[in-house]
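User: Second chain of the day. Same drill as before.
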Amino acid sequence: MQQVPKPSPAFTTNVNTTNVNTTTNVNTTNVHTTNVHLQQQTVIVQHVKRRWRLKSIICIVIFLVILSSTLGSVFNGKSSNASSTSGTSTGTGTGTGTSTGTTTAIPGPRPSSTSFGPLHSDSLMLFPSPLPQPTRSLRPYGTEQAIGVPNTFTYGDMTTAWATSTADGTSLEWLLLDYQVPVRPTRVDVYQTYNPGAVVAVWVFPPGWNASAVDGAKLFWSGLPDASAKPAINVFQCVTNNQTIKGDPLFVVSRVLLIIDSTIPGYNEIDAVGLADQNSSVQWAISVAASSSYAGGNYFT
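Assistant: Same format as last time:
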């Protein structure tokens, strides 16, 4: 039998070397292709992220602009209306701080027991005693905003305080408040939340009497307007300078009348009025009437 000659070692080595080189080239090509695909995917992902980031920023900016415009319209409405009718600036209508100051009223001229001074007593005779209480939700700037405990905690043109129908008027305004329990009056606390310093007189009335000097009302405190009052929430504490009130242990009251000098620039807004007794216990008004209101009417209608 004829034997087939074996391949020489050199030939085998060459074939194996060729296979290794071919395999290495294929693997290198696959790795390169994979890297290219990964780089392309990374570029696409980064591009998508940039687009979404840009869209998010644009949406946030648009939202802030709309929100700012809406809030500005709400708070500037009253100030803009007042400026157009009176020709004077009444502020921006936005709060400028939350600080609260306490001012003790400086005794004014000797009080008179027979006259309301510049305010005619007959102008108050139409109001019943006690005043009617509100029967519906509170209106922005309404007279009824002065009822109850203070709820305006930021200085500025806030809807939660009472405001007169116009700013910078030429006549006096007034705020009449009824209280549940008759007490010996030792102090009247006026929470002024915008353009303070306009209170010039405080009258007090025995329970069941009408708002007239001849019906037992006494001038609790009087003084001059304070144009230098700081622009911050101000608790104006009026301590009586009427010796008759101080010396009469049987004199009790359940009604308070504030006289407001509206020549102090801007809306002179009041959030609440506290009536303190001989034990410094403070109660808050249960019903209110006023010379005018930005919400309209003297009561709540």
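The longest helix spans residues 9-86.

User: Great, on to the next one.
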